[in-house]
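not sure who needs this but someone in the group chat was asking about Tubulin-folding cofactor D from Rhodamnia argentea so here u go. i didnt clean anything up, its just raw.
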Amino acid sequence: MATTVDVEAKVEDLFAPPINEDDDEHDSKERVLQKYFLQEWQLVKSLLDGIISHGRVSDFSSVHRIRSIMDKYQEQGQLIEPYLDSMVSPLMFIVRSRTMEVGASDEILDIIKPICIIIYSLVTVCGYKAVIKFFPHQVSDLELAVSLLEKCHDTNSVTSLRHESTGEMEAKCVILLWLSILVLVPFDIASVDSSIACNNELGELEPSPLVSRVLGFCKDYLSSAGPMRTISGLLLSRLLTRPDMPKAFIRFIDWAHEVLSSSKDDVMGHFQLLGVVEALAALFKAGSRNLLLDIVASVWNDISSLGKSATAARSPLLRKFLVKLSQRIGLTCLPYQLPSWRYVSRTRSLGGNVSSASQKLDQLDAGATSGVILQSMQDDDVDVPEIIEEIMEVLLSGLRDTDTVVRWSAAKGIGRITSRLTSILAEEVLSSVLELFSPGEGDGSWHGGCLALAELARRGLLLPNSLPKVVPVVVKALHYDIRRGPHSVGSHVRDAAAYVCWAFGRAYYHADMRNILDQLAPHLLTVACYDREVNCRRASAAAFQENIGRQGSYPHGIDIVNAADYFSLSSRVNSYLHVAVCIAQYEGYLHAFAEELLNSKICHWDKSLRELAAEALSALVKYDPEYFANYILEKLIPCTLSSDLCMRHGATLAAAELVLSLYQCHYPLPDDKQKKVAGIIPAIEKARLYRGKGGEIMRAAVSRLIECISLSHLLVPKKIIRSLLDTLSENLRHPNSQIQNAAVRALKHFTVAYFGDGGPSDATTMYLDQLSNQNVAVRRGCALALGVLPYQFLATKWKDVLIKLSGACAIEDNPEDRDAEARVNAVKGLISVCETLTQEREQASALAEEDVMSLYLLIKKEVMMSLFNALDDYSIDNRGDVGSWVREAAMDGLERCTYILCKRDSLSSSARPLGVEHLPNLSNDELVENDSRLLFDTNLATTLVAGLVKQAVEKMDKLREAAATVLQRVLYNREIFVPFIPHREKLEEIIPNKKGLKWGVPTFSYPRFVQLLQVSCYSKPLVSGLVISIGGLQDSLRKASTSALLEYLQGEDNDTRKSREYILSSDVLWVLEQYRKCDRVITPTLKTIEILYSKRIFLNMQAHTSLFCNGLLDSLAIELKGSKDFTKLYSGIAILGFIASVSEPVNSRAFSHLLTFLGHRYPKIRKASAEQIYLVLLQGGDLVSEDKMEKALEIISETCWEGDLETAKQQRLQLFEIAGLEMGINLKTHTVRLKNEGLKQATSTDENASYSSLVDSTGF
């Protein structure tokens, strides 16, 4: 066997670039197949060579490797067929030779089972017919295979999982397939059976013992639930139909009669029933007509009664086998002959068809029907038995079955039997099939009927003179869609109807299909563009493509096929808005497309499809605006008041989109029609269609209609204008965010279109007053509404608007009134108002300079400060960190306000032109003097960058990416230069001006931003955000951020390292002081300190170490006091352990803190403290004298700290005495002081006082 290194080397060679390879187009099929299977083949061949060289499978992993490779070719088995001989023949040779050597013993099973797994995997990929051609078939192998099957017959699979199979099932299947080849030997099997030599009592035509054994095995396997059932049926069909097996055949039929007549209702009986029916179907396929005619009556009686039983009603697979067996009985009763009346196409090849299409029609034989060879118009004399009528009834009933597999089998059966009937009887069959398309039939009947029509057309049994009555039915099936509750059925019918059209294209000559294709093409393309299901769109496009290719020239056929290809139709949006629009430009499709959208799609049950259909309808307007204005719009307006919710919603949206599209096409609507459109909304409100089911989606549709009316500048009476404004105000108060957003979009254009000279005086006041409404939905909508109001609405009350919106950005005082969405909308509205005011005031030069400056100063002092405060919104609820929505909106707002202030500075100052990239070199005094006169000063720039940097290192990927992107735009904005950014060069080095940087990836962003720790003005905010990531719960984020920080702290030399540690320690103490008692920051900060201490950070800062430790202990005394947060307590105890190990005076204080925790009310905390004290004492030091060390360790290790609290306190007291410390517990501070302070001892508290609440809150 090849070594692993050799195999890997061969595989690596396969991935080398090809050299001088020929074009696939000029290669032979074998070379192309070998080229594309070559990579795996080399690996498979090396594995097979190892198996062949050893004569068995020595490494079972090679079997799984081969099978996993073969599984990739399940749908492309033809790629493996060139290699079957080199794979199957050697493996079967091993099976045969080793069986001859070892015999049918237990050892042979261990040898053949892994090999059979490989062979059976090839059978599942390529099919048994392709594989068994390479099985050995010597006559002497028959007894060998039977003895091997007998040995395998008694073994059972240890598992039903395929990947865990050890080969029992596969071995049985392979041996049965081998026997199916061996029983075809052209000799009497009795002459092969060696056991007959000792038995002379065998009667004439009696089956030999060898055959009896095979029959016994097969009968057993017919009761199996696995693939052995099908293969044993194949074996029986080949064995029993031999000329020397008449008695065995009759006995099997009698046994099958007993099984079919029995009333077993157990699981094994059901599988046996399936196996017998499947075996009979195989017998009727393989046997000769003379042999089978004698048993037709008895078998038909059995299956007729079985088909009517409850067992068949419960089993789709049994019904499928019964239908298959019925059709084969019918084929047996009818003699095989090629009907003279069937349709035969003149040209069977595509190339010949295309060439013939270019020829003139007058070259055709004038005396013959185009495309049909009529050998004889008279029916042959065929004797049709009466049983055929019963069989056809069964097959027609099968077309109505609820399962697709049964309908498909019945359709093929109808096609096969009809091919042996007279033309008159074939017409009756067609009439019966067409009856399946009556309105009272279900979707199963329509689907089965389409399959039957396709089979008749494929076999030339559907004559051209029958097409006029077939085509209308097929057209109806192409659009079949029946609503059932909240969904619809019919996609399988439409798919099958497309299959019928595909079969027409392949079956008929182009002269016969010319008129038919003209009828089908618009419907096929309608389904291809507008069907909801992707399989139906692709099936219809494939049918159209087949007809274009087979039927010769067709107007714009190639262009349409190129537009509606397999991939372009995969997206529903692309199909509706691009492919359909491209096809509609050609003659004959526009009106068909519009009718389909109008009649079927805008009233569809799927809301998203109705919205898409409205857009698709408007996209077609440009080809014929008059048709859409006079016909489509007239039909849509009454539908907006329909009692059907889907219809009125779709019609309202479609009318809105049509009006806007007509305006964009510069098509003026008459005044009366404009009034009709404007009257839709009052009519809807008068009919009270906002109420009840569907009121929400109607509100959104009405908002869209108002938006489109406004954009189109329709003539609207003043009374209706006020009514529309009230409608939008109502929609703004709705709790549904989609309705609010639709209303906001409509209000933006509505106020501009109809209140250009100034709006109603009460509108702005109403929105301002409702900003403090207790209803959160009202606050959300009004904040957005203020943001889209034009300048005329804001001119007189802009100060109140800015101040009120700034206040709405802050977290509400009352916890019950807090709403993150309201604050987000307030931030968005505030920024929009600022932009509206500043843009209008820049254009209005007549305004006083003081009035303009007051606006900008208010933006600087109120708006910017509100946005900076919004960056600290870390509110949470049951949805998680909802404050992140506010922070994200605030970052966008800060960027836009920064541009507003900087643009104003640049206009008022001539010293710095627009677009410069750096400030001029000014002295500090000049800079400060210049700074005081500017709106955007150094302080504002520092605060802005610091806030963004903090967000750029926190735990949420989305916010990190948003913050870094905003900072990048601020640094490199080419239109508006942002000045006074401290350490701009360093920032530009960290944040380059490149697109596509992955700031959301922690391993990319953190190593860059930690470099700002050496910049004093950014380091503190940076640390406050960084500790959230390092001390957080997300493991991958913690690793990336910790690694980046540690790499930064390493430094280039020792001095740099100490300097960075000192700066970081100062910043950490600042965070602890700044966010005192804020567990959101303090808990991860303590966790971060613990991690850094474990990496020996902060322990070697010389004099600074003591300062840092004392500051840290002061913070711990405050944070750990009365805390119930286990994470915080654990981190604090670990930090105390590290500080207690420092050889400084501060270690006594930390050790005292640790001893205090030994009397904590929570047992887990006492245990954690004891562990830390034990580790501290083991490290030595001067905390406990050497003579008392052993005693202290003994107390720590032998005391049960999770036990009784009083016992723990007594042991703690001993430790205080050993350490030379005196415990003084103040009930308010819980601090421990040294012995010389002499404080009194306080009474202890009950450990169970709040333990239950702790358990509830922490989950312990």
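also Residues 29-54 form the longest helix (26 residues). if thats useful
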